[in-house]
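Re: the request from the purification team.
They wanted to know what the chain is likely to look like in 3D before they choose a buffer screen. I agreed to run a prediction and write the result into the notebook, where they can find it.
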Amino acid sequence: MALASEMPSEETDMTHEQFQAWLDRYIEAWKTYDPDKIGALFSEDVEYRYHPNDEPELGRAMTVSNWIDTRDDEGTYDAEYHPVAIDPDGTHVANGWSRYYETPGGAMRDEYYNVYICRFNDAGECTIFTEYWIQSREARKRTINEAVAKHMAEAAEAAQPPA
């Protein structure tokens, strides 16, 4: 069976506004983890990649299952994405951010900048989804500093003579 990415492209007339509406539904599906909302975003044969070099997850059912199985704690995340470009060949590009919080309404613990590369069928369902992301510099520095501090505390504790 050939992957959708290996098949001739299906033209779609999705506009900038329709792509933004799809991105808004994507965020809503993430915030609710409603299987029907997640599934409505993607074609039956979607190729979903969390990283550009990954082998794709194949199919709507697998994508919905993965979202549900890796669910974030309610209220501890937010996102905003916007269309950047729509190529005449049907490739859609969006960018934005995803933020994660310690607790609902709490301090931000992590932030990522995202780029999504998508293709859609005539029904407005995503057939190919590839995510590129990078952790923000501030969040990365905080992660490194926390790891170093933890390592230093463990080393200091191990160096203490037994009581």
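For the purification team: DSSP finds four helices and six strands in the chain.
Please add any questions underneath this entry.
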